[in-house]
Amino acid sequence: MSNIAFIGLGQMGKPMASNLIKKGHSLNVYDINKTAISEVQSLGAHSSISPKEAVKGCEFIITMLPNGKLVENVIFGKDGIIHSMDKNSLIIDMSTIHPLESDSLRNRLAEYNIEFMDAPVGRTSDNAIAGTLLILAGGTPSQIERSSPILLCMGSEIINAGGPGKGIRVKLINNFMSISLNALSAEAATLCEALELPLDIAIEVMKGTPAIKSHFTTTWANKVLQNDLTPAFMIELAHKDLGIATDVANQLHVPLSMGAAALEIYNQARAMGRGKQDWTAILEQARINSGLKK
Ligand code: NAD
């Protein structure tokens, strides 16, 4: 069992710290919110008056904070952990922060010979309570091996994201996709309501199509990801169907911002001579637009 400092006892941090305690680890906890501290204290955690105090004698230091500036302050600030931590302990930042901030923290700590890994989490606060978070580990193989017994007290699955800084980057991709899909889903549901169509019927239909199953695992797998752009469904037909949807929405006074942006993307692909290609060629067009493919 390990001595762990846990900093940031919010919606996520509190249940994560609680699960570590339940699994028998000894926890020093710190949060600017004293109520949060006393709730975890009642489970057996030792309360601390600063990050600097919390990390004394701890082998692992976990931060679960709202943003990168706060993580930086907890590490390097006046009462920061850098002033009293054991140089052999491992800092595990589980917050969702900007990858460049995470890189900067890792590089600054390396100057003190202190190890830092990023291990943000996927899923929700319900999963934090149940101990079933998805942990996106960005670290060296030895850091991941060393931290795994701790991480598995908070999550049910660890993804080795491929090296230092890669955990926070795969988290960024995941959030980009799911946050954008939330907005697109809201447009689909609103159009559905304007068409006086029950949402559960639309969901039943979309459950069997890429709309809900995702392109990554359906349409792309045997087409663009295999460099095959021969059409299973042509760009110009997709363009026509999206045009019908946006036209109907327009008549019903339903704004479709995401839909309009997507129509423009198909417009562009058509203009670039991709009309007869498979609709997954949208990926190729995006790569060209980004300079990733010449
Ligand atoms: P939260 O706001 O509920 O909790 C943050 C905690 O940090 C609070 O208790 C706050 O008092 C504390 N805090 C703020 N400044 C501090 C400081 N200087 N020193 C010590 N403690 C400080 O946020 P959350 O929902 O627990 O999210 C934490 C992180 O996890 C965020 O980076 C978030 O993006 C990420 N995340 C959240 C979810 C979710 O569903 N809530 C899911 C995945 C990832």
Outline the structure in words:
The protein folds into 2 domains: 167 residues, Rossmann fold (3-Layer(aba) Sandwich); 76 residues, N-(1-d-carboxylethyl)-l-norvaline Dehydrogenase, domain 2. It is of the alpha/beta class and 294 residues long. The protein is elongated, with a radius of gyration of 24 Å. Helix 11 runs antiparallel to helix 12. It has a 6-stranded parallel sheet, sandwiched between helices. A 3-stranded mixed sheet has the order 7-8-9. 50% of the residues lie in helices and 13% in strands. It contains 13 helices and 9 strands. The mean pLDDT is 97. The structure holds nicotinamide-adenine-dinucleotide. The site of nicotinamide-adenine-dinucleotide has 23 residues, from helix 4.
Secondary-structure blueprint of this entry?
Elements: E1 3-7, H1 13-22, E2 26-30, H2 34-41, E3 46-47, H3 51-54, E4 60-63, H4 68-76, E5 90-93, H5 99-110, E6 115-118, E7 121-122, H6 125-130, E8 133-137, H7 141-154, E9 155-160, H8 166-194, H9 199-206, H10 210-213, H11 235-251, H12 257-274, H13 281-289
Parallel strand pairs: 1-2, 1-4, 2-3, 4-5, 5-6, 8-9
Antiparallel strand pairs: 7-8
Helix pairs in contact: 11-12
Bound molecules: nicotinamide-adenine-dinucleotide.
Nicotinamide-adenine-dinucleotide (NAD) binds at residues 7-13, 30-33, 36, 64-66, 70, 73-74, 95-96, 121, 124-125.
